[in-house]
Known about the structure:
Blueprint: E1 10-15, H1 19-31, E2 35-42, H2 45-55, E3 58-61, H3 63-67, E4 74-77, H4 84-93, E5 97-101, H5 108-121, E6 125-128, H6 135-145, E7 152-160, H7 179-195, E8 199-208, E9 215-224, E10 229-235, E11 241-248, E12 251-255, E13 268-273, E14 276-281, H8 287-305, H9 311-331, E15 333-336
Parallel strand pairs: 1-2, 1-4, 2-3, 4-5, 5-6, 7-10, 8-15
Antiparallel strand pairs: 7-11, 8-9, 9-10, 11-12, 12-13, 13-14
Amino acid sequence: MDNPSEPTPVRVGVLGASSIARRRTLPAMRDLPEVTIVAIASRDPQKAEQFADDFDCAPVHGYERLLDRDDIDAVYVSVPNALHHLWARRFLECGTHVLAEKPLTTRAADTAELARLAAERGLVLRENITFVHHGMHRRVAELLAAGRIGRLRHIDASFCFPPLPASDVRYRPELGGGALLDAGIYPVRLAQHFLGDDLSVAGAVLRDDPETGVDVAGSALLVAAAGETVTLTFGFEHGYGARYTLWGSTGRLAVDRAFTPPATLSPLLRIDEQDHAEEIVLPAEHQFASSVASFAEAVRRAQDTGADPGHAAWAATTLRTAELLDRIAGSATRVTSGKRP
């Protein structure tokens, strides 16, 4: 018999048969007792069937038909970036909680609209930026608060990886492609994680691909209210790298594999001081599972109380991320990339 004290799993419909859904998010959902995958919708019926077979749920041909189902509590939106706003809004209007892949939308104004709508309806809305749920960053914050590297002066963060297949949607500007929205969002959110939301853009460069019209790489300089600086590098025309360094008044703290570590990887923190170096190995964690579990817990609270108590803080940070991305894009010096291999 079922244990009546155990909460009922959150029933999730999946919108879009994306690579990140297949590789990371849906396996995490399948393995969590807090969640049940009910159905997956794709405009490609073969993809819908394949995903449904893989994750033991119902296939749905077309996005509209997922809206018509009455057996889902929440939707995971994993369609191209430019479609996030439309479909997240439609599900919120139907009274469905929403977990959307990052970026939540492609414009700060659209992010603000969704946040207002979710608050009005008492619904949970989250952007699936999973790295903030990994314990390594909490440990770094604890070391920072304890004065382990003195006063924080500067952050240097990068997320770069090799060129993508030519057919990848991230090379399509009409679908919200580009490196800033896909990779640049990570170091921007990292800066907020350690310095708060009161950041401004002091300068930026975006390198555009003349063949596709999307930005394939970029850098930015941010400044915090107390004068700390942040340098960001991102793109998909590089060797792989996902790392950051916190520079303090008495030392440096460096983290590698910072944004998308495998669930089996034990993160390594390195602290360098004038005459001392130390390495700290942390436990492996599944940040996608932690992100989904956090979303499911928020949905259960909202179902019990009629509101999401974490909405205001989450929305403020997410909106600030979108505003910073807008300002980087709007103020950047544009240069042209060489021909892709």
